Amino acid sequence: MDVVEAFAARLSHPLDPFQREGCEAIAADRGVLVCAPTGAGKTIVGEFAVYLALSRGTKCFYTTPIKALSNQKYHDLVAQHGEETIGLLTGDVSINADADIVVMTTEVLRNMIYAESPALERLTHVVMDEVHFLADTSRGVVWEEVILSLHESVRIIGLSATVSNSEEFGRWLNTVRGDTHVVVSEHRPVPLDQWMMVGRKIFPLFEPGSPGTVNEGLFRTIDRLEQGSDSGFRSRSTTGGGKDARSGAPRSQDRYRPQGRPEVLEILRSRNMLPAITFIFSRAGCDAALYQCLRSKMVLTEPQEAEEIKALVDAGVEGIPEEDLQVLDFRRWREALARGFAAHHAGMLPAFRHIVEELFVRGLVRAVFATETLALGINMPARTVVLEKLVKFNGEAHVDLTAGQYTQLTGRAGRRGIDTMGNAVVQWAPALDPRTVAGLASTRTYPLDSTFRPGYNMAINLLGLRGFDGSLRLLERSFAQFQANSSVVEDSRAAARLEEELLGAQQHLRAELERVLPLLPQAVSTAATAPGAPDGPGDEPLSAATAEALALLEDYIQLRLKLTAAEREAKQDKARGHRQEVVKVLNRLHVGDVIAIATGSRPLLAVVNAPAKHHDDPRPWVTTEKGWSGRIDASGIANPPVVVGHMGLPSFAAKNPRRAVKYIKESFRTTQFTRPKKMRLVPRDRGNKEVTALRQALRDHPAHAWPAAQRENLARLAHTVARKDSELARAREVVATAKHSLGTTFTRIIDLLEEMDYVEFDGHSGSRVPRVTPEGVRLAHIHSEADLLIAQCLKRGVWNELDPAELAAIAAMCIFENRKSLSGQVQAPTEPLEQAMAATLRIYNELVADEQRHQLPITRLPDAGFSLAIHQWTAGAPLGYCLAAANESGAELTPGDFVRWCRQVVDLLQQINKTGFDNEVRANARRAIDAIQRGVVAIGA
Fold this sequence. Notes:
Blueprint lengths: L2 H6 L8 H11 L3 E5 L7 H14 L2 E6 L2 H15 L4 E4 L4 E2 L5 E5 H9 L8 E7 L10 H10 L5 E6 L5 H12 L2 E5 L7 E7 L2 E4 L1 E2 L2 E5 L1 H10 L16 E2 L6 E2 L9 H10 L5 E4 L3 H13 L7 H14 L5 H6 L2 H9 L2 E4 L5 H12 L5 E4 L13 E4 L3 E3 L4 E3 L2 H8 L11 E6 L6 H9 L13 H21 L2 H38 L27 H45 L4 E5 L6 E7 L10 E4 L4 E3 L10 E5 L5 H4 L5 H10 L18 H12 L7 H48 L3 E4 L6 E4 L1 H6 L7 H9 L8 H12 L15 H23 L13 H8 L4 H10 L6 H21 L3 H14 L2 H4 L3
Parallel strand pairs: 1-7, 1-8, 2-5, 2-6, 3-5, 6-7, 9-21, 15-17, 15-18, 16-17, 18-21
Antiparallel strand pairs: 3-4, 9-10, 11-12, 13-14, 19-20, 22-23, 22-26, 23-24, 24-25, 27-28
Protein name: RNA helicase
GO molecular function, one term: ATP binding
Keywords: ATP-binding, Helicase, Hydrolase, Nucleotide-binding
């Protein structure tokens, strides 16, 4: 029996064709790239590489993008091959590290390569699970570093979600890794049904037998719901107004009320569609959903299951102090699990997330409210996936889900061997066009684009391993350069086309100008008839009159372009001022205020149920006189509301506004409020001095006196010339950047590192060879976005006098990035720490000046928002005290955030311990690590 058949015989189901194809390619000593939908079973191909290495007596490393996935894959492989055969390395966990099969995060493998670790001996295969993480903006560079730096004899098995440019990625792998076979499958072993929930009904998204055609019955139901619209303003609330699903006309749905989370789960249970994962794109939203279910009477478990859940939960939190469990609201969380529902997001304690994952996989928890982090490869499939919205906040703005994100999320639906179908359910809300959902559901691929870029640590490691020329050659082989080079051909063609179009536009303009020259004022066509100089290669000489007219026209067009830009900027300033005016009003609203909102000819009255939560994006909850209830925001209001009175509201009107709708409608009916007869729809235009001056300069320009017909025709042609010229300049810049960006950046980095004594050059001018200094060797151990800043602080000894807790605090300052900033002030608890923080900021400012001088990306500003919290934790304070300290410093952290940042501080302290800069600093780093790893930080790692 050959090795593939022997492996297949161990499985509980036959190999799918794409799995067999991938396994046979690996058995033939080829690299493999497998692109298949989430849940299709592509990890089987990776597991075959493990089986093959064991059968041959060689090594296989299995890499994943996140520690949770590494932990899960480790336990999966232990179950298949035994504890003595499998190891785990995730930075903060090391189990059986010398095993022939080791599961690790990709960063761990990158560090092993740079350290030329002996563990790489006999390595024949590396599985890179979720290899599409290569496109991740913050961590994707690590995947390319590994692919480029592994010994050529190692075969890479890349497992990816379906990407639209898999052939391009495969060609690159062939170029840099040798023979690589690309396997692409669109097949899902468990088919996926697409649904839309409208009210209490669930409709198929597509017509039966016509996958591309949206269900007409769904449209008819939505049309009936839309009757009686009258509020005329937009809201981000799911019950708010928006645009008609077909016509795009503004409207709202006062009669429509979406189902609450408990009701949705009951509907799914009645249709045998549990267990379900409901994706909610905020941590607070997941927690709110959990507590909505807790307040209901819903129970999804049997009594004996509830007891089993409680026993598993209690075992999972063993070792966490009782006072910390109280801070974590443990009792209520445990009760929710016992009733069969849970939340899952990165803000939770890792131990809590692991418990939820185990209970869900066991089938004891039937409903999970999760953020999109659950879609990152963790094996938690469900029968049904529910999406409440198709919009998420990306850190800067609310943006629509991409087709790739939709596919990744809904890919969780359908459990192989359990379900015959998976279900993707999107909850309808006003302004949601079913055809938008259909478009997302029909698009199953997304592009994979490189985010590779050289940094200080990478540059120093590459230089040490490969030398300067070898490093440049490696950068030239990156996927980023591969994509750039392949695009250069198209960009160059585009530039050539633009050159031809520009020349044609210029010739057309000059011919027309010469034709109408006699019609222009005499000042332009005076007696000068001597030929002018050609304007460019191949151009005919221009007469002096034509050249003068052309110069006037070009100056006139530039003036018009400046005016257009100034008017656009003035309009944007006006819109910003308008929004600020609305924001100011919304921030001043109080519970019970009755406001008038402009809606066409007759303002609409509404009462405030709950005031604004966030100063920058105020979204007070209001209920209108017509019965609509939801949040309003500045972007959806035509003009600032006007307060016209006050209404006394019962206490439950703020806590549960929809319960008070009938009361509020009746109050509006029985109470007289003065309704404005009309409202100013836009702020008054106070004028713009720059625009006024440019308009006057345009009127005074000599070319403005030309006959209007000839002037405007010439202006149109001149605008075309200017536009083509601008497009050509941009195209040429794109080509130049694509050709030189990576190598140029690397060279600039080496120049800066030479100035700082991390690199020195041997030889004479013209033959200088860069070499890594002892200080550079220390820098090579620091893997952080602030690597050079940290190395500079260590080299200059500004952290030498810090004790363990102070060292942890200063390390946190270099890596912490505040996710949600509050008003607060950082107070250094000790004088040595205060001095070290000030010195670190001085060194940072010097570094920024050097980076600007060398035209390099700027290192992120240190953030001390977590420093006080980690200082107190390292000194032995309880969890609640440390969370309060973070809050006082302007950082609002969940327990999960706290643990995650503690572990990142530990990771940096471990790197500092390896640098060898100062023995006392290294010793204090070890002491700080031991002090941090306790309680909630140590549990569930």
